[in-house]
Specification:
With 245 residues, the chain is mainly alpha-helical. It is 79% helix and 0% strand.
């Protein structure tokens, strides 16, 4: 697969609607996680890849310590720690894309860069965050059965993650279009953008509570010699039944 082919596909991606960009990014994010997890597990016996995830682990521990010092160590403190950690990651991703057009606008006006350079950097950062190598590295030591704990809360976590990427991209090409004239957003468009952004903390808050529960389920199943898959099914079936009926 050549770089020119990727550039062509990315150019078509930029022309998609928000919903379609989200669907593509959501799918690619899960695929990126699967690829990095598989590669990390394959090379971990040869090279200790887990050391590369120290920064992410340290960030969570700092947040967790700060939250637990105020709330104590309980279900909700772990929930909020996951939420804050993931939300900060999504905001960071969004801000990276927000900053790019300002940097390249200045450089292009000074003749130091071109729109082509800007497009290539957008593609590079998009590919990097979609592959999400740090998350894959952190899961290198987990067994395949333990990885089931990623799936339930992952549906919501990766929704928030994907929205932050897509909104970052949309803001970038709004401030500095890769082609054509710059459009002016109406007040309605700005409000819609803000409402979409608010979906990020909503999805991540749900994911934070589920992530805490998911690891409790995994540990409970392992300690009691139960099937992890069956335990997950029974717990979530009972939760949904109590909510719906």
């Amino acid at each position: 697969m050549s770089f020119e082919f990727l550039k062509k596909q990315f150019n078509e991606f930029l022309n998609l609607s928000f919903i379609n960009k989200f669907i593509v990014t959501y799918f690619l994010s899960w695929m990126g996680l699967s690829i990095t997890l598989l590669i990390s597990k394959l090379i971990n016996p040869i090279i200790n890849v887990e050391s590369a995830g120290v920064l992410t682990t340290a960030k969570y521990e700092v947040i967790s310590t700060a939250v637990s010092s105020q709330m104590g160590i309980n279900y909700f403190s772990i929930w909020y720690s996951y939420f804050i950690s993931n939300f900060l990651a999504c905001v960071t991703i969004f801000l990276v894309f927000v900053i790019l057009p300002y940097i390249y606008n200045r450089d292009i006006s000074k003749g130091k860069s071109t729109i082509k350079d800007y497009f290539d950097v957008l593609l590079f950062f998009y590919a990097l965050v979609v592959l999400n190598p740090l998350t894959g590295i952190l899961g290198a030591s987990l067994s395949f059965s333990d990885l089931l704990a990623i799936i339930p809360h992952g549906f919501f976590e990766y929704a928030g993650f994907s929205i932050s990427i897509v909104l970052g991209i949309e803001y970038s090409i709004y401030k500095l279009p890769v082609r054509g004239e710059k459009e002016v957003w109406t007040k309605k468009q700005k409000i819609k953008f803000l409402l979409k952004f608010l979906l990020i903390p909503i999805f991540l808050f749900i994911a934070g509570g589920m992530e805490t529960l998911d690891w409790i389920i995994v540990n409970y199943a392992k300690e009691n010699g139960l099937s992890i898959v069956k335990t997950f099914f029974e717990v979530y079936y009972n939760i949904l039944s109590s909510l719906l009926f």
